[in-house]
What we know:
The complex is a heterotrimer of chains A (178), B (246) and C (353). With 178 residues, chain A is of the alpha/beta class. Helix content of chain A is 40%, strand content 25%. In chain A, β4, α2 and β5 form a beta-alpha-beta unit. In chain B, strands 2-1-3-4-6-5-7 form a 7-stranded mixed sheet, sandwiched between helices. In chain B, α7 links the parallel β5 and β6. The longest helix of chain B is centred in the C-terminal third of the chain and has 19 residues. Chain B is globular, with a radius of gyration of 17 Å. With 353 residues, chain C is α/β, with parallel strands linked by helices. In chain C, β6, α6 and β7 form a beta-alpha-beta unit. Chain C is globular, with a radius of gyration of 20 Å. Classes of the chains: A alpha/beta (178), B alpha/beta (246), C alpha/beta (353). Chains B and C meet through α3 of B and α2 of C.
Amino acid sequence: xxxxxLIAGFGGQGIMLIGKxxxxxxxxxxxxxxxxxxxxxxxxxxxxxxxxxxxDDEIGSPVSKKLDSLIAMNEPSFVRFVDRMKxxxxxxxxxxxxxxxxxxKDVQAFYVPANDLAQQLGSAQVANVVVLGAYIGATGxxxxxxxxxxxxxxxxxxxxxxxxxxxxxxxxxxxxxx
Amino acid sequence: xxxxxxxxxxTSPAIGMGFCPGCSHSTAHKLMAQALDKYxxxxxxxxxxxxxxxGLGKDWVRLNNIVALHGRAAAVxxxxxxxxxxxxxxxxxxxxxxxxxxxxxxxxxxxxxxxxTVIFINNTNFGMTGGxxxxxxxxxxxxxxxxxxxDIERHGAPFKMAELIAELDAPKFVGRFALxxxxxxxxxxxxxxxxxxxxxxxxxxxxxxxxSLCPTNWKLNPVDSAKRVEKEILKEYPLGIFKDFE
Amino acid sequence: xxxxxxKGNEAMAEAAVRGGCRFFAGYPITPQNDIPEYLSKRLxxxxxxxxxxxSEIASINMVYGxxxxxxxxxxSSSSPGxxxxxxxxxxxxxxxxxxxxxxxxxxxxxxxxxxxxxxxxFASAKxxxxxGFRCFVVSPSTVQEAADLVYEAFEIADKYRTPVxxxxxxxxxxxxxxxxxxxxxxxxxxxxxxxWRITKYNDDSSARQFSTYRPTGEMLTVDNIAxxxxxxxxxxxxxxxxxxxxxxxxxxxxxxxxxxxIAKSAVKELRAQGIKAGLIRPITLFPFPNKAYENINYDxxxxxxxxxxxxxxxxxxxxxLATKSQLDYININTSGGVIVETExxxxxxxxxx
Lengths: 178, 246, 353
């Protein structure tokens, strides 16, 4: 098994953070993982993306031309990367900010209003955790309960923060349930 | 209707400057471009760009420009000016470029009294590489390579470049200005105008230090960054003209 | 030993500390900034010293000075910064001083890009600076290997009193991967022999001199011969490589560093498609692992696919020397910071069969 995921959005949406968390959780689960950030000159307000690859075996390239999954946090990211999906791939669309729809019938699309769900939980900051929960819910790449625990603990040990992140993760999982 | 304000003639509205929101490089670029326009120097100007954030402006100005090796702008500018005295040469440099790796070239060009204009952006850190300690970093300031704050025992005191250069015999105009509010921007414009005019008149070396905002690496919003200039930075770096030959 | 999910640059920095590094000097340049940033805190925790030099040149000269006193020392930079350090490295090599140099390479020439590339092959493995000296050059393919090689680099540097040059790139430096970090070395065991380093002056016999100037050609020749013998010794004893699925390989690929790991994926993909592919992945670039290529079955194999993230290609010339120009050399290249794709390697191999 080898699964590639590209996470893309605006700088400041916590893209890199959930990418690292996912890689970390995979490594805790005893799998191999790589996280590779796109990086450029230090300018605020631009777009950001990272690739996470999770596998049983040794991982070659830390980036992938064809994607098993995509998390598109904003419209430009969706437009830029949606054509790189493999057949049967999974796209998590942050429908709070992305108006476009997936046209490819061979790709599974999940529309998750991540910003709205995060807002309902009381913090727009956790929209990234919502989509991470959605991704794990939709793909089952990691055991959900395990991933949720690891991710929430990594993101903050304060009880109220832990609870908020757990709820955000659950909201994402819930949003992709059939 | 009379046009009273417009974009500098040779800048490209289509290409963004590439600077972060609130960054003073944008302001400094505008002032430099307006000064060149004021004296009608578009065809004569040669900008020497540094390695660092400053260099991001190079596509915005539709002017002759050359990106120097890191720190070597004053040397590149010296040679261009010597062999092409009709050109107006501006060496535009940040604090890592001018005061760290380029200290030797900076001081020697100043000491030779080259007929150049040096514009020095002092934002107290290495911006492009992500906010490392610069020679201008304030004591106590935390950066990614001075995580416990700049310490005089470990790192030495901040370099006051304008004062250092004013100590030399050859420079003709040396001053420090700031870009954090309108009043100071007007003063900075006057200084840049003067420095460029003096070069046109063959009067010699000028050095304009500009205290600048770096909200991204200071981890402050632009308003708080401007407050930081007023509250902290100007205490260490007093504004003023340190040398004026005219 | 616990495993960590850690960035390549930080893994190398931590491995250096555990390998005994107690002095680091460097200057900001992307994509290696995490190394000095990490060490600016970490080295003080172990009683070491970190200096952000005023330039690349100052930084390598700080290393030259400190290393001459026997303190395990390191600098890191990225391609254009290495150009500035080159003269300092020649002094370290010429004076036979151990030190470790990391190049987290980017696209070139000059400023180029800040993304990882393999365009510094000649400038690392062949000619770092004028004078014909070499460094011991290693190039990791994974974050684990990067940590392990940096850790061991200090031992190799001390053993041969040579600069060890770790050639990696922005891909390995910036990716996070699972790593088992090596154990902390005991500081007592780290200090190099008193026989050569600058220590306290006791009498004339304990005074040391480090100077690379020689008044006569004959005197310099003596040093140069010693250097040549050292390099021969490395060729004999220190060649390292990974041979992956080479036993029954009918199609041979070769690549090093970050391209090496991608070529390895391509080999697996080719095997999955029924093509018996294999990979030779050099780990030491100097000494170049000629022995790895001697095992190729030249009766059956008439071409080799050389994957390299450099245009024009560079590494291929060493492959051609190692294989004594007996094969067709099919270059698969990207450049300027573009990462070579597994698919394009697979396609090119199938196309050329």
